[in-house]
Amino acid sequence: MDGFDPVTSFGPDVARRYDDDLRGDEAETVDFLAGLALGGPALEFAIGTGRIALPLSQLGIRVDGIELSHDMVARLRQKPGGAALDVTIGDMASATAPAQYRLVYLVFNTIYNLLTQDAQVRCFENAARHLTPDGRFVVEAGVPSATVRGNQFVDVERIATEEVVLDVNRYDPVTQILDESHISLTNSGVRLGPISCRLAEPSELDLMARIAGLTLVDRWSGWRSESFTAASERHVSVYARPASAET
Ligand SMILES: C[S@@+](CC[C@H](N)C(=O)[O-])C[C@H]1O[C@@H](n2cnc3c(N)ncnc32)[C@H](O)[C@@H]1O
């Protein structure tokens, strides 16, 4: 998408509205992550407004963050407990957080906000760099082969009396770039929310992990540890150092 930049995509308007319609999976996400954090500390790549980090920190786990958008962090700071979190402003593919972590996690398809394979590999390497020897890196993302339908397709995200939200998508299989516009239709007008993503199959992510010295430990299709099958539209993948490298 011409002129797309992840910083402008998560600017003040998006940050202000971001928590209006939550995904609804926050409680199970936090349960799952708390089970792996074993008391912490934990680091969220692309912490955003703290949708997951804040309830996780309310369990007594130290949660730090890395985030590119000042506006998303400003929103996080306004929320109860948000001022106390240690957030490094920067790119999750390269920025350094202040500790080593039992858990590093990257949810909600956000690995795809890195628009090249190289940046995604560097993100895995950066996660590995921040892990304690027995640490876990959790990635949650959609499965492209189960969700992309041709080069152009439309998904209905929400139908309500006051608003219809559509996802209008254009996919280039050569670059693996999905240009997506969230389109909100209301009586007061049309609002476009453009974003570009670079999609990758789970197998490609596993190779990125391997380049970073990590290996796949578990793969589920959801936060309640549902089985991952050929029909799964998303995955929750857990990576760690190979057992022999943990000591
Ligand atoms: C869909 S939101 C997810 C926020 C939060 N993780 C959540 O689950 O609600 C994507 C976030 O990724 C951030 N982001 C995009 N590219 C980034 C990068 N290269 N490094 C750090 N943060 C990035 C955006 O600013 C935005 O806050």
How would you describe the shape? globular
Number of helices: 8
The assigned CATH architecture of the largest domain is 3-Layer(aba) Sandwich
Major β-sheet profile: 7 strands, mixed
* Average pLDDT metric: 94
What does this structure look like?
- This protein folds into two domains: 6-143 and 200-245, Vaccinia Virus protein VP39 (Rossmann fold), CATH 3.40.50; 149-197, N-terminal domain of TfIIb (Single Sheet), CATH 2.20.25.570.
- It has helices spanning 6-9, 12-17, 26-37, 53-57, 70-78, 117-130, 144-147, 202-211; strands spanning 42-45, 63-67, 87-89, 101-106, 131-142, 152-159, 164-172, 177-186, 189-198, 215-220, 234-240.
- It is α/β, with parallel strands linked by helices.
- Helix 6 (117-130) packs across helix 8.
- It has a seven-stranded mixed β-sheet with strand order 3-2-1-4-5-11-10.
- S-adenosylmethionine binds next to strand 2.
